[in-house]
Amino acid sequence: MSLRSWNPTMVAQGVLWVLFGLLLRPEPGTATLPLLMDSVIQALAELEQKIPATKARHTASAWLLLAQESGPRDLVHHFLLEGRSLKATRLDPHQLSPELRGLTKDVVRHGVRAGQEYGVVLAPDGSTVAVEPLLAGLEAGLQGYRVVNLPLDSTASPLDAGATFADTEATVPDVRATSPGFRDVLPDVISADVGAMYSNVRAADLDVKPTSPGVRPGSPDVPVTSPDVQAPSPGTKVKSPTTVDSLLVVTLARDLGLAFLQGPQTWSHSGLGTDGCWDQLSAPRAFTLLDSKASPVTMAFLNGALDGALLGDYLSRTPEPRLPLSHLLSQYYGAGVAGNPGLCSNLRRQNGAALTSAPTLTQQVWGALILLQKLEPTHPQLQGMSQEQLAQVANNATKEFTEAFLGCPAIHPRCRWGAAPYRGLPTPLQLPLGFLYVHHTYVPAPPCTDFAHCAADMRSMQSFHQDTRGWDDIGYSFVVGSDGYVYEGRGWHWVGAHTRGHNSRGFGVAFVGNYTAELPAKAALHIVQDVLPGCAVRAGLLRPDYQMLGHRQLVRTDCPGDALFDLLRTWPRFAANVKPRTARRASRRSRRKPPPMILPASGLQ
């Protein structure tokens, strides 16, 4: 192959197929890297160095064949991404380091078994990410956006090794929402109204009006209703999709639909987006879910799926020469891709909401189920399912995803920031509550803009509250950083120590920083004003008629700072009838010496 015919995309695809092959054929007894995103990036960098550019396509095909020989075939992935002529030269796995080969036994396929989640890694922003959907999105992006025609009958099998699909090369002009991409996204990007996004799903979009029975997760007493979504009447003709988008299907749509196929009883508590805890944060090895009955569509899976879709979208729109994949991931899980702080993992939910509309995602979930039904007619969950039933599943899956995931902030659980145990016995709250009390931490005074500093601030505040104040735990219900994340304090279910005399009536939410003369980041303000309380109302944790108050309205203090309180007074939910209590003297918070700060370190436990 001449240099003129060398194609960087072929190299990147070759790297991915080698990594896919390694992930599917682990070798026991080799050293393993910690389950960190940095380890995955290290593996990609090593593969990029090992694979000759002139053999990239051959190498990709070789590892594709190896993957097919080593376990159950993913029929949807094969049909959408692998339906090519397979002529390969095999790469000797021993050309790769023992550490890379050892990593594969820990990051195989994504799965949930006995309360443990496998195939996930810890990212620098503190989030846990499933590797499989991330890599699938990168591969789909390298191949370009494609409208894939669904097979009209189950006899058109795509599984013959020599089969090619000439009808899968069309570009997809309408998959993304009106937002054309993320080149102009600002660091303080604010998500779209996700609730309104879902309300646009109409009968005209689906030719069917399935209902959404049941209740939302975390709210056993609050029914879910949607006036725009109704069950189809008997005899209703359902118009099913005839094409799908390969990127959305291999990352998100197929697995989202499968998670909602088990019957109406799972729609009320699907376990969608369940998070978990690592055994340690410096060199993680095992990840245990907080809910042992969680669906496979966990928080880590959704994070990986969104990251794969967003980066795949970026790759599909980026001309040659592209960044090496190891560099792309380093930037995405760092300060932002190509110097754009708006395209980074911290903002995956906001960017995910802009990537595709709810009607489009519903069609993609529905189309993915149709495709799987065609490719695998004996699939136990799909046998006998009518188009009306598949449409209803797709509608419910999209509704739950847009409301319970995209419509809620990303909250790091206590174990993620290294919380010390609660001292004593916590007192349960009587939910739903009617108030949200706004604070600033004052100390730490600087806003925290990355996970390491925010987690250190959380540990410092908890230490001060427990050891100096003598409280059982950190006082706040939640703390909001300037890194795009919410940090769990006492959480939704336990009485806090944030607003004297009112702790059992409302949640205490604090911004990290001193906001006497300046305001928090726009994204952090949006979380507290809209996203966090909106999510709590939908979950039955906060009353629909809730009110917001500044700390100074109930306690003699300067908190939450003059600048922040002046802004709070303009918010629609502000309780203007409660007058601020004038501080007779400087508040204890402002007079006390700053607690000793726990500096960020590589290990948080």
TrEMBL record:
Residues 1-31 form the signal peptide. Coiled coil: none annotated. Residues 422-561 form the N-acetylmuramoyl-L-alanine amidase domain. InterPro entries: Amidase/PGRP_sf (IPR036505), Amidase_domain (IPR002502), PGRP (IPR015510), PGRP_domain_met/bac (IPR006619). GO terms for molecular function: N-acetylmuramoyl-L-alanine amidase activity; zinc ion binding. Keywords: Immunity, Signal. It comes from the Eukaryota. This is N-acetylmuramoyl-L-alanine amidase. The keyword Nucleotide-binding does not apply. Belongs to the N-acetylmuramoyl-L-alanine amidase 2 family. It holds the Pfam family Amidase_2. GO terms for biological process: immune system process; peptidoglycan catabolic process. Residues 581-594 have a biased composition (Basic residues). Residues 209-238, 579-605 are annotated as: Disordered. The keyword NADP does not apply. Residues 409-555 form the Peptidoglycan recognition protein family domain.
